[in-house]
């Protein structure tokens, strides 16, 4: 039985799983950026930081899908889930770049 076919409909809808993947990976990536900024003790823009966070998120998302494909019989791996994971990560990267630009422009004036 699919979530959207459960009795009473409830909170779940078609595509809820994809929204959850996107949201969780957005939050994960934002927290990784926050941790890196706190560790650096500054808000400096570093391309290597962005690359590392994308790589960590891709490894986690890919690992989850690999586990679902090979080890769990009641779950299935989907490319769309991995795509939504990466979309959430890229949303966080965009937010980081945008906030860095705003902060840099604010400090310049």
Which descriptor suits the 3D outline? elongated
Number of helices: 3
Rg computed from alpha carbons, rounded to a whole number of angstroms: 17 Å
Question: Count of DSSP E strands?
Answer: 0
Strand content: under 5%
By secondary-structure content and strand pairing, the structural class works out as mainly alpha
Q: Count up the domains.
A: 1
What does it look like?
- It is elongated and about 55 Å long.
- The chain has about 110 residues and is an all-alpha fold.
- Helices cover about 70% and strands about 0% of the residues.
- The chain has one domain.
- About 15% of the residues are buried.
- The model is unreliable at about 1-5 (pLDDT under 50).
- It has three helices and no strands.
- Helix 1 packs antiparallel against helix 2, helix 1 runs parallel beside helix 3 and helix 2 runs antiparallel to helix 3.
- The chain has helices spanning about 15-40, 45-70, 80-109.
- The longest helix is centred in the C-terminal third of the chain and has 30 residues, at about 80-109.
């Amino acid at each position: 039985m699919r979530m959207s076919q459960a009795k009473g409909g409830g909170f779940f809808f078609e595509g809820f799983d994809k929204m959850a993947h996107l949201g969780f990976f957005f939050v994960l990536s934002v927290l990784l950026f926050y941790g890196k900024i706190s560790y650096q003790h500054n808000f400096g823009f570093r391309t290597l930081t962005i690359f590392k966070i994308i790589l960590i998120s891709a490894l986690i998302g890919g690992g989850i899908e690999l586990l679902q494909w090979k080890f769990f019989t009641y779950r299935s791996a989907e490319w769309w889930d991995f795509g939504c994971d990466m979309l959430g990560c890229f949303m966080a990267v965009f937010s980081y770049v945008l906030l860095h630009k705003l902060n840099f422009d604010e400090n310049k004036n």
